[in-house]
Fold this sequence. Notes:
Number of strands: 5
Number of helices: 7
Distance between the termini: 33 Å
Largest sheet: 5 strands, parallel
CATH class: Alpha Beta
Structural class: alpha/beta
Strand content: 5-15%
Number of domains: 1
CATH superfamily: HUPs
Radius of gyration: 17 Å
CATH topology: Rossmann fold
Shape: globular
Helix content: 40-55%
Amino acid sequence: xxxxxxxxxxxxxxxxxxxxxxxxxxxxxxxxxxxxxxxxxxxxxxxxxxxxxxxxxxxxxxxxxxxxxxxxxxxxxxxxxxxxxxxxxxxxxxxxxxxxxxxxxxxxxxxxxxxxxxxxxxxxxxxxxxxxxxxxxxxxxxxxxxxxxxxxxxxxxxxxxxxxxxxxxxxxxxxxxxxxxxxxxxxxxxxxxxxxxxxxxxxxxxxxxxxxxxxxxx
Length: 218
């Protein structure tokens, strides 16, 4: 674990946008070990359905509070997200819809940061190998530039075996392992692929990061 993380020069307080516990678990531990002053900001109106959203949020919140890290629960304004992505329903993963989604979440994160004494933001989204790291950074930088004295930290969370440690932490904590990005269109496209490949549809609420036999979340 890299416990020598340092914020960019001149920055002192990080607001970390988090998408879920699996992506943020190792990052939270690394930041805490590095004695960086940070809080978790959970703003993900893209996640659908609401049951999936609640599972991801509550698990992320539980892990953050377990390690005494402030967890900021932002509004679930899914109606605004659907309005924002109208006309992009069939955009491919990593396409225009994803950029618009990142922009929306990072602008809200940067706005909160400016209002509450943070001077830098970042996101756990970049640790996932399924995401385009440059696409995420571009959205983050663009959002931060809209606010005075706010920067976006482009640190590559995949470094120092970040992706590998993410899985280790997730398995140790028996996190819920979501099987699609989060939005309704990702859920649709994943199930289309599963149907073509003769696999069962996604079952929301099943524990996959577990040493035990997968069981349905109650």
